[in-house]
Amino acid sequence: HKVMLRRLIDKPTITRDKHVVKLVANISSPDEVRDVIANGGEGIGLYRSEFLFLGAEKLPTEEEQFMAYKSVLQQMRGKPVVVRTLDIGGDKELSILNLPKELNPFLGFRAIRLTLDKQDIFRVHLRALLRASSYGNLKIMFPMIATLNELRQAKQILIEEKNKLVEEGGEVSDTIEVGMMIEIPSAAILADQFAKEVDFFSIGTNDLIQFMMAADRMNDKVSYLYQPYNPAILRLLDMVIKAAHKEGKWVGMCGEMAKDPIAIPLLLGMGLDDFSMSPSSILSVREQLATLSKAEAAKILDKVLSMATTDEVIKLVKDRFRILD
Ligand code: PEP
Ligand code: MG
């Protein structure tokens, strides 16, 4: 079976009814790009840039950050690379910042909330990204956006840093797409509004599900509520994807759900464009998608969206599709 999968390495990802999607990878460091290429990844869907910061004894310099981003872009040779701006704070603790302990770190001072406040850190980070942009196909994505105001502020700071660099004579790509994570319910519900102001969405189901179900993703006692196939979640995902498409914007998913064999037919039916996952999952997902028809998946999705419980959804998907584990 492994040998069969390897044949899919340099093939496009295409369904039985000839619908094409992209399978891209989640990474945390430039070293992981080798795995992405070895597993036939068509790009990077999520580069968790904060990993240069976690555990560091001092903040990484602009040059250190630039080298890391440039390395990823060069290794990917023009394939898309989505870099998420710093998702630090909260559960991703950063000892050098000396932030007070929080009662609810997942709901706290983290990601875009922290970087809009500590703009010195944010601006250096963005400069490093902008300088790296001429080495490949960079897309920049903001995490944990809850309001349009946050998105507009982040975009404004990005434009300011870009203008400064250009004035200094630096080379900056002028085709950088700017997107946002959809991982907070308020942004998901207002997706039609957000879609007018970004080039793409990437749905972060790891956080989105915990916030929708009010169930801490790290707490075993409530893990039964962590339900990716709950019709409430599925309706929301469907709404987000349709809202983006209506504005002509593409949608990826970079949470764990994107590689889940039960979720995949449903996400295909919704029209998800990019599935982002750990490199080791790419080939088996490509194989599964080749057995599916988008038209058929859309019909099953229709039924699923009018169901009431997670169990009904799982049963129907398992009855209608051959799910390999
Ligand atoms: C997510 O929330 O789904 C996500 C991809 O981000 P992280 O897991 O890094 O919070
Ligand atoms: Mg997240």
From TrEMBL:
State the needed cofactors, names only. Answer: Mg(2+)
Give the main location: cytoplasm
Give any single GO term for biological process.
Answer: phosphoenolpyruvate-dependent sugar phosphotransferase system
| UniProt-annotated binding residues for phosphoenolpyruvate | R48, R84, N206, D207, R217
Kindly state which reaction or reactions the protein catalyses.
L-histidyl-[protein] + phosphoenolpyruvate = N(pros)-phospho-L-histidyl-[protein] + pyruvate
List, for all copies, the residue spans of the domain called PEP-utilising enzyme C-terminal: 6-292
Q: Where does Mg(2+) bind?
A: E183, D207
Secreted is among the record's keywords: no
EC number of the protein: 2.7.3.9
Q: Keywords on this record?
A: Coiled coil, Cytoplasm, Kinase, Magnesium, Metal-binding, Phosphotransferase system, Pyruvate, Sugar transport, Transferase, Transport
Active-site residues from the entry: C254
**Compartments (UniProt record):** Cytoplasm
Keyword Kinase in annotation: yes
Which EC class is this protein assigned?
A: transferase
Entry's Gene Ontology molecular function annotations: kinase activity; metal ion binding; phosphoenolpyruvate-protein phosphotransferase activity
Recorded GO cellular component terms are: cytoplasm
Q: Which family does it belong to?
A: Belongs to the PEP-utilizing enzyme family.
Give a short account of what the protein does.
General (non sugar-specific) component of the phosphoenolpyruvate-dependent sugar phosphotransferase system (sugar PTS). This major carbohydrate active-transport system catalyzes the phosphorylation of incoming sugar substrates concomitantly with their translocation across the cell membrane. Enzyme I transfers the phosphoryl group from phosphoenolpyruvate (PEP) to the phosphoryl carrier protein (HPr).
Put simply, this protein is called Phosphoenolpyruvate-protein phosphotransferase
